[in-house]
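Researcher: Here's a chain I'd like modeled. Treat it as a single chain, no partners, no ligands.
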Amino acid sequence: MRSFAGGHDPTDQAPAHGRRSRGGSSDAATVLLALNRLWALDLSRARLQALGLLLGADVPVFVFGRAAFAEGVGERLQPLGLDPAWYVVIEPGCSVPTAGIFASPDLTRNTNPIRMADFSSGWQRFAALRNDLQPIARTKYAPVAQAIDWLGGRPGVRFARMSGSGACVFAECESEDAARRIAETVPPQWAGWAARGLDEHPLFLRTCVQDDKDANFLGSRQAG
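Model: Modeled as a single isolated chain. Structure tokens:
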């Protein structure tokens, strides 16, 4: 772990490659947000998102701090209101190298673009969407396929899917009770837990100088 004035950088550690649910990107975003506050830099969220993009395509959405629809390489973000939901997340105990998934000749590269409206018409529409990386990981890594199938077959699950390029998988559940019940029965060879979805980060207003986009968003939420 690298030390510097006033903090330690957790992103300098060797990550658990291929097992994350975007852990490295969220760690990097947390470092940016924390140092912005610790060092009293008073950078706006938009500025931190631009810095985050230099670290990785997934970092800006974690700096953004709320549910969002992403375009481009992940830097063009629009706030997205989602219904409250509970999830079960499983780490199936295998490593899925991101580069290998993207390099697969079987990867679909001409998929139709997803529209923002697809995420705002109920979970049924969201469940019909897809992760183009999932079929490749399922074929190459049996534990991923087994975890998706196991989750998808549990009572109270709406849909199950792989997170990003893997290896973690998740399921949206009908209720908190269903999520906790399923998490308690996850097979011992896997790590699993229940998690509540958040529309906004608990520290959203405490880590950045509010910029115009933040003000407009908050004003629309309060007016609604």
